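Appendix B. Worked example

We walk through a single record from start to finish. Start with the input: the chain for SUI1 domain-containing protein, Brassica carinata, length 363.
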Amino acid sequence: MSEVAILGFLKNNESIPDSGEFAAEHNPDHEEVKIIIKSLQGFRYIEAKELKRETLVLTDDGKKFAAEGSPEIHFFSAIPEEGSISKDDLEKKLDPSVFKIESTQAAKKRWVAMGKQVSRKVQHVEDKVKESLLQIQQGLVYIVFKAYLLSFLIRGWTRYSYVEKGPNYAPKRKIFAIDLTRENLHNWKELEFKEYNFNAKGQPLDAGHLHPLLKVSASLFFCPSDQQSFMSELDSQVPTAFDPFDDANAEDSGAGTKEYVHIRVQQRNGRKSLTTVQGLKKEYIYSKILKDFKKEFCCNINKMYDTSEEKLNALHKELESLKSETPSTKRRDLNIVDMNYSKENIDKLHTNIASLKQQMGRA
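Next comes the structure step. The output line below is what the pipeline stores for this chain.
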C-alpha cells in the first residue's frame, strides 16, 4: 500500500469518507494508511479530518477462548457423560488458574451439579461466549453489556480520517529540491525547491558564562511584578506583633498605659503560685508596693505602718534580707515574696531610705 493508491483514488472520487473502510477494501494495514495520510496532509496534497470511534479489542485470554472455546465448555467436557467425577480428580484434568471461573460459570448456567461429586445436568450445551468473542473480533459487535465478557475485552478508541483533495493536490507526489547541487544545474528552472521559513529561529546554543547552578537561580528569579504581588500578599497574611495585654490596655480610661507586675509567692507549705497584678500606676512608690504585697500574700499582717520611723525600720530589714538572700534561698519559716534580687531593686530601697531620713531630719 502506497500513497499512490490514495492520490489515485482521489483523482476519480471527491473524498474518502472513512480511512478504515478504505483500508479494509484495499487490504492494507490501517496504521500504515494513517501514517501516509499525515504525510500527505503536511504537504497539503490532501485535507483530512480525524474521526474517533470506540472499538473493542480482545485480550490474550479473549483470543484464546475465541479459538479454543470458553472456560465453562472445557469444564463441561471434562465431566463424563454417564456418572460423576470427584472434584479433586476434575481439578487435576483442568488448568488450575481458571478452574474457579470454569466451575462458577458452569454451575451458574445449571450445566452441572456441584458437590463432592460433579455430574452433568444436561447432555448438550452451546458455547455462546465463543460466538460473541468471534463476533467482537470480526467487528460485528460494538456494545457488550455482560460483565463476564467485558473481562476478556479492552475498550479503546480508533482514529479514522475523512480525506479530500487539498490545494496542492496532484496524482503523484512531487519531489522538491532542497538545495542547488551539481546535478540540478542543467535543469534548475524546471525544478521546484522547498520553501524556506526565514522567520524561524535557530536552535538555541547552550553557551554562556553562567554556571549550571546560576542558570537554575536565574530561572527561579522573580520578576518585579511577581515579586511585588508576592510581597503584598505576604504583608496581608503576616499579622503584626501580638500584645497579650492589648485588650486590657484598650479598656484603660486614659490615665496612661497600665503596667503589669508578675510576682511568685512562696507559701508556708513550699508551693509556689504566679500572681498577676494589673493597673499599677508609675507613681506608685516601690516601698508601698512591696509593703502591700507582703501584707496581702506573705505576712498576713493586719495593720499598716503609720509613722516614718516604722517605715524606715521596715525598709532597713528588707534591704538586709535582699543583700543576704539569693533567688535559690528557701525560707520555710516566713512567707516571702520571690522578687527579682537585682541591683536596681536594692538601689531603689537605698533611695527610699534616704528620702525618709530627709523627711525625719536625719539627712
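Two observations about the output. DSSP finds 15 helices and nine strands in the chain. The CA atoms of residues 235 and 241 lie 13 Å apart.
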